[in-house]
Amino acid sequence: MTRRTRSPLGRLLRWCFWLTLLLAAWLLGVAAWIVHVGNRDDAAPADAIVVLGAAAYDAQPSPVFEARIDHGLDLYRAGHAKVLIFTGGYGGARARFSESQVARRYALRQDIPASAILIESRSRTTVENLVETRRLLQDHGLQRVIVVSDPLHMARALRASRRLGIDAIGSPTPSTRFRTFRTQREFLLREVYFFHRDLFEVVREGIGS
Hints:
Layout: H1 8-38, E1 48-51, E2 56-57, E3 60-61, H2 63-77, E4 84-86, H3 99-109, E5 117-119, H4 126-140, E6 145-148, H5 151-163, E7 168-170, H6 181-208
Parallel strand pairs: 1-4, 1-6, 4-5, 6-7
Antiparallel strand pairs: 2-3
C-alpha cells in the first residue's frame, strides 16, 4: 500500500490547530502571570511611593482610586519612603481637578505634609503615568520606587516601569472594587489585552521622551 500524501488543505488545518493551541497557551500564561504578580506585595524601603491614577469625580476620588491612595498613605506612614508621587491628568475638558490634584487634596486632609507630595497632571494612561513619574524622579534625584495599583493591574505597571528604566517594586492594594467573579474576569481579560498593547506604547513613549 502506498502512503497517502496529505492535501494542502489538511496541512493548513493542522498548522491552524497547533497555532491556535500555542496562542491559547500563551494567553493563559500571561493571565496566570498577571494573577501571580498581583498576589505579591514586595514593599520595601524606597525613595518614593508612586500611586497610579484612576478615575476621579470632580474633587472626589473614585472607590478604586481612593483604595490606591489609602494604600499609598499606609506605606508612607509605615516609613517605606519619604515621598509620595500621585499621577494622573484631567479626566475630561470640564474637569476642575486632575486625578493627581484630587489625590493630593485627599492626602493633605489626612495630615500628610505638602512637602512630602509630588504630582504630575499631564498623563492619561498607565504608561504616561510612568513616563511623567520618570521625569519627576530625575528632577528630584529619586531612584527606587514602590508602585501602588490594583492587584490585576500590577503586572502591567511593573513591566512598563522596568521597560522605561524605573527601578520599581510593587505593592498592590489589599482591597479592590473588583471582587466578584464577573468583574475580576473582565478586569483580567482587559489587562491581558493592555499587556500586549502597552508593548508598543512603551516603545513609542520611551523613544519620544
